[in-house]
Design a protein that fits this description.
34% of the residues lie in helices and 11% in strands. By secondary structure, the protein is of the alpha/beta class. The longest helix has 15 residues.
């Protein structure tokens, strides 16, 4: 992993130096060891930076922050909460996201696991950790990815204007420490997972709140329909 990584030029201009940091070298060593041990790393390496390549830096309007990729083979493709089109049934957190979208805006996406169209409109779907061992959730936490994704969030905070940050659950909300709430919009609620949604995710209306803010700041709202 180095500066020759296949990354959109808009992102390389902002975070290229991160690839030379010690934590990134440690992460590279860890991933090489996992591969040498014949462990399956998800998603495929060509999709590790899919969130960045799908939403160029200068097009980021909304940030949704996830934790790490789905550990089920065939699900993760580098966008948080999103799964490949053929995945059925939908992951449970995504089922709840779709239920809240129906309640909030009357938009029914219960048929769709694939959130790529959101990313292409400026919804930056970033996991804090970009890889995982198949079948072993959270297995790559603390290996270096967090330093990289924290740098990404800081860059958006400092260099972009009037971005909506949607932070679901306590893990994502820790990143609020990097975000200037006077410069950007920060929407916080419980996580959409079945274990937490009842604590305040239901009725939080993040999608309409996002579009209201974007329109107030002269930006095109997101078409959430898939």
């Amino acid at each position: 992993m180095n500066t020759t990584v296949d990354l959109h030029p808009s992102w390389l201009a902002v975070i290229k130096s991160e690839f030379d940091q010690p934590y990134m070298q440690q992460l590279k060593t860890f991933l090489a060891q996992e591969k040498a041990a014949h462990k399956t790393i998800l998603p495929h390496s060509s999709l590790w930076f899919n969130a960045l390549n799908s939403t160029p830096f200068d097009q980021v309007k909304v940030v949704i922050l996830g934790q790490d990729p789905y550990p089920t083979p065939g699900h993760a493709h580098g966008l948080c909460f999103s799964a490949m089109p053929e995945v059925k049934p939908l992951p449970k957190s995504l089922q709840n996201i779709n239920k809240e979208l129906i309640d909030d805006l009357g938009i029914n996406n219960t048929h769709a696991a694939y959130l790529q169209p959101w990313a292409e409109q400026g919804v930056f779907l970033l996991n804090a950790v970009l890889t995982v061992e198949a079948g072993n959730a959270n297995s790559h936490q603390g290996k270096g990815w967090e330093g990289f994704t924290d740098a990404i969030i800081r860059a958006i905070n400092e260099q972009a204007e009037s971005v909506v940050f949607i932070l679901w659950g306590s893990y994502a909300q820790k990143k609020a420490a990097f975000i200037d709430a006077d410069k950007h919009c920060v929407i916080k609620s419980a996580h959409p997972s079945p274990l937490a949604a009842y604590r305040g995710f239901w009725g939080s209306k993040p999608f309409s709140k996002t579009n209201d803010y974007l329109q107030q700041h002269g930006k095109t709202p997101i078409n959430w329909q898939l």
